[in-house]
Write a structure and sequence with these properties.
The structure is a homodimer of 263-residue chains. With 263 residues, the first copy, chain A, is α+β, with helices and mostly antiparallel strands. Chain A contains 8 helices and 11 strands. In chain A, the strands form 3 sheets. A 6-stranded antiparallel beta sheet of chain A has the order 5-6-7-10-9-8. The two termini of chain A are 46 Å apart. Chain B binds a DNA duplex (19 and 19 nucleotides) through residues 7-8, 10-14, 16, 22, 24, 29, 31-33, 57-59, 67-71, 73-74, 76, 87-93.
Chain lengths: 263, 263
Amino acid sequence: MTQTVLPPAPTGAPSNSGVTSNVSGSPTFSPLYQQIKSLIVQSLQSGEWKPGELIPSEVELAYRFKVSQGTVRKAIDELSAENLVIRRQGKGTFVATHHEAKVQFRFLRLMPDNGDAHQPENHIIEVKRMRGPAEVTRLLDMKAGDSVVYIKRVQFFDGTPIILEEIWLPGSLFKGLTVERLDEYKGPMYGLFEAEFGTQMIHASEKVRAVAADEAASALLKVAVGVPLLSVDRVAFTYGEKPVEVRRALYVTSQHHYQNELS
Amino acid sequence: MTQTVLPPAPTGAPSNSGVTSNVSGSPTFSPLYQQIKSLIVQSLQSGEWKPGELIPSEVELAYRFKVSQGTVRKAIDELSAENLVIRRQGKGTFVATHHEAKVQFRFLRLMPDNGDAHQPENHIIEVKRMRGPAEVTRLLDMKAGDSVVYIKRVQFFDGTPIILEEIWLPGSLFKGLTVERLDEYKGPMYGLFEAEFGTQMIHASEKVRAVAADEAASALLKVAVGVPLLSVDRVAFTYGEKPVEVRRALYVTSQHHYQNELS
DNA sequence: AAGTGGTCTAGACCACTTT
DNA sequence: AAGTGGTCTAGACCACTTC
């Protein structure tokens, strides 16, 4: 410990060549890794790397953005924590996709009280284009009266109707969406949205209440009028916190429950 | 870029002096920062640093554990992500406490449909010690028939009864818990558990259903029999994934909702 | 053997808070 | 000025996957 080697060439503050220079005192300061993160999100959003695909390695991204691998790593770490990408040691980093069981559990919290979860069976009741109701267009950040796609469906578990859903989507983003398209598609609806319409749902906000079954719900869910149902109002978002789906669901919770982890 | 400075003294693989040596091929391998994390959790659990208090700085912990500051940083980063500690730039890292609004929202997801959340008013109905029901002792990892503390209470928001709860706690951990103790305590119940009984709730798992109000719920929540109520069955855990509370709550959701973020 | 992400170190400077 | 966490770099080796 007596040696006092000459200090290495001072690296210190990064030069930030290639990315917005972080001048001290700059009002719009943001850390380099956040800027890198934004650039990666832009590439995800633009479709440069599609769901399920491999994105460039950390070394390659570091070279592209002219930053250190550690900075790229921190950016990807956060994207991984937000479930936008999935890291696999030895293989690389992949764009998250709804064609995976894990992801589907994140967006459907309904579990059977005992036994394992099965794939639900979809019965589309109605698909139509319409002027969006005021509340829907407000939640979707659209102009009043803008066109939306409306979907009504029932989901069966083991032959029993459990979920009744109404869904509203921006008409501009889901032009070719028909009942046939929905019927022929196997797997989760968000998988269809991702594969056929290039819209990736990355997070959602839900309001849950207990309500009584009305005549319509009673008929479709095969329960008596007045039976308690779980009402789940969802707004789902794609990249950039842009709302792209409004959904109102009713769950029969006599044999199922909504599972939630508080942490 | 032409200079090729002589390489710095090879540091390379860490010697790991002071902590379990990570011999390659060891069957019980775990990264250094995970071991550090466990040691920090032990200190939290033992009460060496109490809720709300400052823990030692990264530099100090690095010296204590004989690892680099970066390794301590990664350990604390994860603890911060898990809400066990809170980092404050310039000040230090603090042990998370239930005496904070933020934490309370994490454990009570009920929000008014419009307007701001107010502090609820507690009305304790009953507190007693009893032999734990089979399902309760099972969920709490206790032996059948072990002693538990039972609490029944109603919570009022703006003078209206909204929540009816039954709570079961291990008798051994909550010896002096009485109705007076609960009545005189202002603030969230988990704050009392933390301050008076040294038990810190760090996460919980909930099963949510819609049920019909029975006679008892009807009387206490001032709603008609049969009205749909949100049923929330919770198991709460302290350090080390140890279950220490079972709670069954009924929420009136005509003016409130259970808020949940899917991400 | 080569490439990927995962861990660990060492050192510099920045932003923020307190003394 | 001193101490804290926050950012950034550079380089090493490890664990895992594929060729």
